[in-house]
Amino acid sequence: AQLDVLAKLAGKQYFGSAVDNPALADKPYVRQLTNRLDFSQLTPSNTMKWETIQPQRGVFNFTGGDEIVKLAQRNGQKVRGHTCLWHSQLAPWVEAGKFDNATLHEIIHDHCYKMVRHYRGDVGFDVSWIVSWDVVNEAFEDDGTFRKTVFYNTTGLTYFDTVFRSARAADPKAKLYINDYNLEGLGPKSDAVAALVKDLKARGVPIDGIGVQGHLILGRVPTTIKENFQRFADLGVEVAITELDIRMELPVTPEKLEQQRKDYETVIAACRAVKKCIGVTIWDYTDKYSWVPGWFEGEGAALPWDEDLKKKPAYNGIASGW
Ligand code: XIL
To answer: Which InterPro entries match (predicted)?
Structure first.
């Protein structure tokens, strides 16, 4: 059976893929992307980021995001919104850091509220087509300290309150997540996220989930994913794997592909084992459009379909993990 079918049989809400708008011109690519037996969920990998959505103060551009949401809607696929607040791919006018605390709070509210509100109703749906939002992305360093972004430097921790409340007000039904990488296994960064989520919940700040990106390295899948996910779930939030890929040093060999199959299986089995791990999204489905070669020198082949859109052993690893 296929990946979303198996995820549902395992009691999960979806298996999905990220997609970036330029790839929508590639017909064979779109045919597989919209195959609902494999994917019942999509995440726009770039066009809901701040630099695109609000490139200048008060100037909003929803074109790319709308294109993906409409495609998903036509195909009965859910969407994950990505992302309200992130230090990277941020508009220069915000990044410059020239606003005082009160003004930056207003800017954060305005940005997140307008974007989440737009996708709740303005694209022609009665109900939101976006089931969950990565409200805050990558707020921590790997050692568990807060990342010193313009948001942190200007507002301290109060930006979390503002941005989560804005998202909730804009779309009360969407699940609101904090999302980060190197959060798969137990460690200082996942401890820090757990502590923050506990504090936000105790103070009544609306947060529903922890997103674990899952940008992993071949043969180095953490051994404590299940324990960590369960500890997150015990805080009273759901967990999702939001950007899974498992990269290898090139060239590809049959041995590496076999290791990758096992690694995918291990990760999926960990999600399967934790009831509150509600779904998995891969960070695009084919090596043809993976971000990995562009970001990690000499690495690639991180996804379950190769550059010719053929299934790799990793596909079977996901299937058997479910
Ligand atoms: C990546 C995109 O895939 C690339 O196209 C872009 O150039 C850089 O960002 N963590 C995230 C994602 O939360 O937004 C990133 O996406 C990958 C790392």
So the answer is: GH (IPR017853), GH10 (IPR044846), GH10_AS (IPR031158), GH10_dom (IPR001000)
CA distance 230 to 124: 38
Domain of residue 217, residue span:
3-321
Q: Locate the ligand 1 atom nearest the alpha carbon of residue 215 and give its number.
A: 18
How far is ligand 1, taken at its centre, from the CA of residue 45, in Å?
6
Catalytic annotation present for 243: yes
Please name the residues in contact with 106: beta carbons below 8 A apart, sequence gap of 6 or more.
Answer: none
Count of structural domains within the chain: 1
ipTM of the prediction: 0.99
Q: How far is the CA of 216 from the centre of ligand 1 (A)?
A: 14
Q: What pTM did the predictor assign?
A: 0.98
pLDDT tens digits for range 99-138: 999 999 999 999 999 999 999 865 555 456 799 999 999 9
Active-site entry in 138, 184, 243, 265: 243
Tens of pLDDT, residues 223-239: 999 999 999 999 999 99
Which atom, in ligand 1's list, is nearest to the CA of 283?
A: 3
Q: Using an 8 Å Cβ cutoff, are 312 and 260 in contact? A: yes
Q: What is the CATH number of the domain that holds 304?
A: 3.20.20.80
